[in-house]
Design brief:
With 741 residues, this protein is mainly beta. Among the domains are: 1-125, no CATH class; 146-236, Lipocalin (Beta Barrel), CATH 2.40.128. The protein has nine helices and 59 strands.
Length: 741
């Protein structure tokens, strides 16, 4: 008779054999396998420890983290169970390996003698014998196994938009299908009906209904309790909102607001404005609605379908409106208005506004990474909350910020335009949580819901910090990567921040911060210098070894590209725009050599703008001195050096010019050339295919896909030694193709 202890030991040893795990995931249901492994871990005694292979022992915590490694990439393993070893190694090794502290100094690496990294390294040795092909991460991935996420919601195979109801249900828009989960990970419904990708979701306050809008403008109202479609609208391009009792919904289409009764499934009225409507807000009792345009707000009586009041507001690109939760006051842009009189009660600083649930305070943001909290009665500034973000922040006009209160007014949640989330405790004014790696985040019943860039939704506890710590890296979202010529170094650009990485170790070796936005970085042929192209019309040449600026060249107008010749003796910079408009007077003065002086007679002339051709190509020596300024005559797309120091410039209209860089003479001009192709000297043995959710590694010889990686990182580049680099959000990924390529 086998004892209970012997049964547990046998199951644990099987759980630590990679061949057994791979077979189970390949043949059995993923959910059932995970449930089985979780049950094994839960049944372990407190002081459990067993030697699974010679000199490698595991305890309960190691086994718990092992199961978490399966869950962290649930979608990938469901689709491709052969990726289980790669997933467990990439997360398991960096969980408790001593090397992890180099990449994440603030994180305390578990110091137990029993380590998960020992188990996955033993697996790696076995896989090397089989020449197993996989993608190895040379630095920790953004999420650690001991981060405090509670559940993983699977089936997330697309762009994720996420929202939560007060019933702690989660709705995620995955392509054109809505998934509704409980926060314990149980999938309730899949709502199918949209033909295009879904771009917006919103719950009713009571959580009984859900409204969705797709990219094609189609809006659908759903019964979230039954998973049924209630009604559809087409060509809705702006916004919609539920009344607070969840019985009515307002849907805006251009100048019209349609009021729809959910219970009777009929349209109540149409409210028509003279100008396009930007945002709407319901009164607490659901009998009135405020519609805001660019420069005015209209108050409507919904039951009568008539205007009650109209008042003018400060004209803003972003027009947010928020009705007081308990009285007849409206916050719109930077003013608080009386709904009854239409008069301004007081003004505050802020574009995006949110009342506290009790109406005593109002929070505002002003696109400066600060949240201001005001007294809701008199508009007195109470305090300012600052994020940990970089002080310089540029955002485009379509990028929106948001601020809102938790249901009990104990926390203020601030979501930046790059979807980074900050949460403050209202009483202590302390920052509770900054979700560095989330793509989308919401709060529901003391839990935070995050949709990460790897197409997996995770539910986190709100106790203390969700994330153990941040990896060494950028504070802002990465925009671009540039690899050195020998492939040993990688430059990553995040607005005003530049970091240089060692591709062999995955460790950043130096970083630079500038006052100007960085557009691009170009490496010298000796891999020691970089040319940094920034918005100040200058190109800075930096020595990465000494971490200092060697010299700066002033191009004169916005440069877009820089490149060294083969022996690094000359640097070329280009700007795309050929023609710049200047006043006729300034052109006349510059041509005639006249120094502008004041006009003693006070005579004014009509200002005329004349297009002037500029030098778009400039060649500099290795000390930063201008050698030649060349005019191509069209929009210059790129330039290339030949081995004999000839320069080829390529324009948008297909024309190509070849220049002698020493003399600046144009040697050849081809007026029409449709394309310029550069073929690889030798065919690669593999092909990287970047899909929407993952990366595929295809073997050219075997004509099949041999490895998968999730998430689908951006700007994927292949360096020597089979190094693959890319980025997602604020994180740099450095991977290595292993398996005898």
């Amino acid at each position: 008779m086998i004892s209970k202890e012997e049964k547990i030991n046998k199951k644990v040893k099987e759980l630590c054999q990679i061949q057994v795990i791979e077979n189970k995931f390949a043949k059995e249901n993923f959910e059932e396998v995970i449930a089985e492994y979780k049950q094994i871990v839960e049944e372990l005694p407190d002081e459990f420890c067993i030697e699974v292979v010679p000199n490698i022992s595991v305890d309960g915590n190691v086994l718990k983290m092992l199961v978490r490694a399966f869950e962290v990439q649930a979608t990938l393993l469901c689709d491709h169970p052969q990726s289980v070893f790669q997933t467990v190694w990439n997360y398991g090794y960096w969980y408790d390996s001593p090397e992890a502290s180099v990449h994440c100094p603030a994180r305390r690496v578990p110091d137990s003698e029993n380590k998960l990294c020992h188990v996955v390294e033993y697996w790696r040795e076995q896989k090397e014998i089989e020449s197993h092909k996989w993608l190895k991460s040379l630095r920790p991935l953004p999420i650690f196994l001991d981060d405090k996420w509670l559940h993983v919601l699977r089936d997330c195979r697309g762009e994720i938009g996420i929202t939560t109801s007060n019933r702690a249900h989660i709705a995620a828009a995955i392509d054109n299908v809505i998934h509704i989960w409980k926060t314990n990970g149980e999938l309730l419904y899949r709502l199918i009906g949209h033909e295009d990708n879904i771009t917006q979701l919103e719950w009713s306050d009571d959580g009984s209904s859900l409204i969705s809008r797709a990219y094609d403008g189609e809006v659908k109202i759903w019964d979230a309790e039954k998973g049924e479609l209630l009604h559809s609208f087409s060509q809705v391009k702006t916004t919609f909102s539920f009344s607070h009792d969840g019985k009515k919904v307002a849907i805006v289409a251009a100048k019209n607001t349609f009021i729809w009764d959910i219970e009777t499934k009929r349209q109540l009225c149409i409210l028509t404005e003279e100008k396009a409507i930007r945002s709407i807000s319901w009164s607490p009792d659901g009998n009135k609605i405020a519609c805001a345009g660019i420069d005015e707000v209209t108050i409507w009586d919904v039951s009568l379908g008539k205007k009650q009041n109209t008042f003018h507001i400060t004209r803003e690109m972003h027009c947010s409106i928020c009705w007081h939760p308990k009285s007849e006051k409206i916050a719109c842009n930077q003013e608080i208005w009386s709904v009854i009189t239409g008069k301004t009660l007081y003004k505050i600083e802020g574009i995006h506004l949110s009342w506290s649930c009790d109406g005593r305070k109002i929070a505002s943001t002003l696109d400066d990474h600060k949240v201001r909290v005001w007294d809701g009665e008199n508009g007195e500034l109470l305090y300012i909350l600052e994020t940990e973000s970089h002080p310089f922040h540029d955002k485009m006009w379509w990028e929106m910020e948001n601020v809102y209160w938790s249901g009990n007014d104990r926390e203020i949640i601030y979501q930046q335009c790059d979807r980074e989330l900050s949460v403050w405790d209202v009483q202590s004014k302390k920052l509770l949580d900054t979700s560095k790696y989330s793509e989308n985040a919401h709060q529901a019943k003391n839990k935070y819901i995050h949709a990460a860039g790897d197409c997996v939704v995770r539910v986190w506890s709100d106790q203390k910090s969700n994330f153990t710590c941040a990896l060494l890296g950028h504070k802002e979202r990465i925009k671009r990567l540039s690899r050195s010529k020998n492939g040993k170094y990688l430059a990553s650009i995040a607005k005003r921040e530049l970091m240089i990485w060692d591709c062999e170790t995955g460790i950043p070796i130096c970083s630079f911060t500038t006052q100007e936005i960085i557009f691009n970085v170009h490496w010298s042929c000796d891999n020691r210098k970089i040319a940094v192209v920034s918005e100040d019309s200058a190109v800075k040449v930096i020595d990465i070894r000494d971490e200092k600026i060697l010299y700066t060249v002033e191009h004169g107008q916005d440069p877009s590209f820089a490149s060294w010749n083969n022996n690094d003796t000359m640097l070329v910079t280009i700007s795309g725009d050929t023609y710049f408009f200047e006043s006729s007077e300034s052109i006349r003065d510059s041509v005639c050599g006249i120094t502008p002086v004041s006009n003693p007679f006070g005579i004014t002339f009509p200002e005329q703008k004349i297009p002037v051709e500029k030098e778009t190509i400039k060649i500099w020596d290795n000390e930063g001195q201008l050698v030649h300024a060349l005019k191509h005559g069209e929009y210059v797309k790129s330039v290339m050096w030949s081995e004999d120091n000839k320069l080829t410039s390529i324009c948008s209209n297909g024309s190509v010019k070849i220049w002698d860089a020493q003399s600046g003479v144009c040697l050849e001009h081809e007026k029409e050339k449709n394309s310029l192709a550069i073929e690889s000297a030798k065919p690669e043995r593999f092909l990287l295919e970047v899909q929407k959710q993952k990366i595929l590694v295809k073997c050219q010889k075997e004509k099949k896909t041999v490895a998968f990686f999730c998430p689908a990182i951006r700007d994927v580049q292949l360096a020597p030694n089979n190094i693959v680099t890319g980025f997602l959000g604020k994180n740099v990924y450095i991977l290595q193709l292993c398996g005898g390529w």
